[in-house]
Amino acid sequence: MFGGLHAPGVLPSATALLDLAREFTPRVEASGPTPVLLDLAGLGRVWPTPEDLGRAILDATLRRDLDAHVALAWTRIAALVVARARPGLTLVPAGREADALSPLSLSFLDPGPDRADLFRRWGLRTFGDLAALPATGLAARLGPDGPRLRHLARGEDALPLVPTPPPESFEMTLELDWPVDGLEPLAFLLARVLEPLCEGLVSRGHRAAALSLDLRLVNGTVYRRSLRPASPSAEPRTWRTLLLLDLEAHPPDDAIQALTARAEPTPSRVMQFSLLDPAQPSPERLAETMARLHAWTSAGRGGAAALLDTHRPGAFALGSFAPGPYSPRAAPASRSPRVALRVFRPPLAAEVVLRDRVPVFVDRPPWQSVALAVDVQGGEHNSPAFPQPRSPSIQFPLDEPGFAQGVAEDAEDAGCEGHVPFLAAPGHVPPVSRGAPRPRAVHDGSAHAGGRDESGDPASKHDLRREG
């Protein structure tokens, strides 16, 4: 036997009828808030007659202040259609489904706008009109859908009931006999809550995208903390570490009497890793590491740096650190030298010797004195070796004609003459002009070292703001 529930009015919630139907049987089918179909097989021991069962369902709707129609029939289509068409309680005896449906309007069959217009032009108004047509004629005009609609109009439905699964709730609660105060005993209790919760997630192919922890305190209040890491996880150890670090930074005001963990499920993502690409960090371990960094630093000082579209030097913002999948970099189209600059913060004092507005000598400890010579006319020169820096540095090409000249002119136009990068050709020593005297470094150990040009005149004091 099947039961149909339909509420023509406004329901207090979208699952009001569904929750009421599950009080009688777990086998409930619903494609929306209303109507709802119940499988009432096996309930004869509790309610001996269909009248008693139907009256019990109707009384349950009245207790909930629901204006609902109840119908009991031996086929699915009869129970659903009669519940929609007739108020109160309606019982359809076995074998009398066609008689019960015959006077009802075809609009309860939901044939669709095209079929409804076709039936109207044919002069069909009720279930009985459609059921009286021959099956052969309907099949010739409507195809396989014609006999199916005729069977439904006669109350014949061979399709089984497909139960609607209840909403998945991933929640675990632990009531304590004695209140606990402190992170060490709470860590043990969190393990007892999180382990079965994560096992339920894994058994259904889910992970937790977010987790909320409700702590009922001794003073009667509820203290809630919610976490949403960069990547979902179903590892209880990871969630316990994240919760403990968060509670260490934001402890509750009183002892804990009960705790409830509630997870927000998300489908597990299956990833196929490559045997040739570098190994990616584990999302769980990455979440733990980022949580520890956030616990050690103040708020907003841990994450991934993102440049801002602004003219302010060095302006950036911090976002969530969530590295994506590995993607190999494409090989450069040409191997031409490139320029890179490095900004020192705070600025470093250095001495730069200029010759004809071109930097030829840079001195800045802990690097040794470095002589730079460039033929701006593009001529050939031979060069002896000269001292190299004591520590590694980014190098810049000097073998392009006019490169250093352009750097010096740009620096002068910007109002920072002498603020030039340390320049060296990649893979080899820059040439020094044949016959040109090698300049000497002058460093007095003060905060700002003075420079001089080759004529002996002292150069202006400056900071080395860019170094390679």
Characteristics of this structure?
468 residues, alpha+beta, 4-stranded antiparallel sheet, 12 helices
Question: How does this structure look, described?
Answer:
With 468 residues, the chain is α+β, with helices and mostly antiparallel strands. The protein is built from 12 helices and 18 strands. The chain has helices spanning 16-22, 50-63, 76-85, 97-101, 113-122, 127-131, 135-142, 145-153, 183-203, 236-249, 283-296, 403-413; strands at 2-6, 28-29, 36-39, 69-73, 89-91, 171-180, 206-217, 222-227, 256-267, 304-307, 316-319, 343-349, 351-355, 358-363, 370-371, 451-452, 458-459, 463-466. The chain has a 5-stranded mixed beta sheet with strand order 2-3-1-4-5, sandwiched between helices. A hairpin with a 6-residue loop joins β14 (358-363) and β15 (370-371). 27% of the residues are buried. The model is unreliable at 373-404 and 410-468 (pLDDT under 50).
Give a brief description.
With 468 residues, the protein is an alpha+beta fold.
Q: What is the residue-mean pLDDT, rounded to a whole number?
A: 75
- Work out the number of β strands: 18
| Share of helix, binned | 25-40%
What separation lies between the terminal Cα atoms? 84 Å
Give the H and E element order: EHEEHEHEHHHHHEHEEHEHEEEEEEHEEE
Number of helices: 12
Instruction: Write down the Rg.
Output: 40 Å
Any low-confidence stretches, pLDDT <50, length ≥5? 373-404, 410-468
- Please list the strands of the largest sheet in the order they lie side by side: 2-3-1-4-5
Morphology = elongated
Largest sheet properties: 5 strands, mixed
Strand content: 15-25%
In terms of structural class, how would the helical and strand content be classed?
Answer: alpha+beta
